[in-house]
Design a protein that fits this description.
This protein has one domain. It is built from 2 helices and 3 strands; from the N terminus they run βααββ. The chain has a 3-stranded antiparallel sheet, with no helix packed on it. It starts with 16 loop residues before the first strand and ends in an 8-residue tail after the last strand. The structure holds zinc ion.
Length: about 70
């Protein structure tokens, strides 16, 4: 298993992972339309990290198993 930096997107390898608060208004708009928005409350999603390249959404807590 290769574990890259926490700030690297596990999906596309981009280093542009952002916290919710770092997203621009346009990016938040896009993030709100991700499939994950159906599974998590807006409050929970503010703790997630987002890849602005492929829109992978990283859910930090490991208790949740997909
Ligand atoms: Zn990505």
């Amino acid at each position: 298993m290769v574990h890259v930096s926490e700030k690297t997107c596990p999906s596309c390898g981009s280093i542009k992972m952002k916290d919710w608060t770092e997203l621009t208004d346009d990016e938040k708009f896009l993030a709100q339309r991700l499939p994950m928005s159906a599974e998590y409350t807006p409050k929970e999603r503010k703790k997630h990290r987002y890849c602005t390249r492929c829109w992978y959404e990283e859910t930090t807590p490991r208790s949740h198993k997909a």
